[in-house]
Design goal:
Largest sheet: none
Number of helices: 4
Number of domains: 2
Order of helices and strands: HHHH
Distance between the termini: 114 Å
């Protein structure tokens, strides 16, 4: 074999000395730390995006489940609805009289008070409540 040079532990090569500029070193260190901080911010943003995507998928699945269940409920309700075979029943429903709500509520109360038809305890209590409401509305 060839000659191999062994360096003993006592014999070490001379260290290399490099000139050191403290200001540029400090500036480079600050730039490096800013880059690391920007990388951490990017990682945080990526983690938030991943979390939001997972949440979006979960909500999408939940919406699809709710829509399918509502469609099933709607179909069940339409299947359970009775069919009207007799057209006379429809006409009879259309011809029913509706209540007359054209008079104001207070006029109806006055008419009831003047005729004295509402002498029950409930009617008296309602008239007392009505008077209190009038006083409150006049107060404001």
């Amino acid at each position: 074999m060839g000659k191999e040079k062994f360096i003993s532990k006592r014999e070490r090569p001379d260290p290399v000395f490099l000139p050191f500029d403290y200001a540029s070193h400090k500036e480079n260190k600050v730039t490096l730390m800013k880059a690391e901080l920007a990388a951490l911010k990017c990682l945080r943003i990526l983690e938030n995006l991943k979390r939001l995507q997972d949440e979006k998928g979960k909500l999408k699945r939940e919406l699809q489940h709710m829509l399918s269940s509502s469609v099933k409920d709607f179909e069940k309700a339409t299947n359970e609805m009775p069919l009207i075979n007799n057209m006379r029943e429809i006409k009879r429903v259309e011809e029913t009289k509706t209540a007359d709500f054209s008079q104001p509520y207070e006029e109806k109360l006055r008419a009831m008070e003047s005729t004295g038809t509402d002498t029950t305890a409930l009617g008296k209590e309602l008239s007392i409540i009505q008077e209190k409401l009038k006083k409150l509305s006049n107060y404001q």
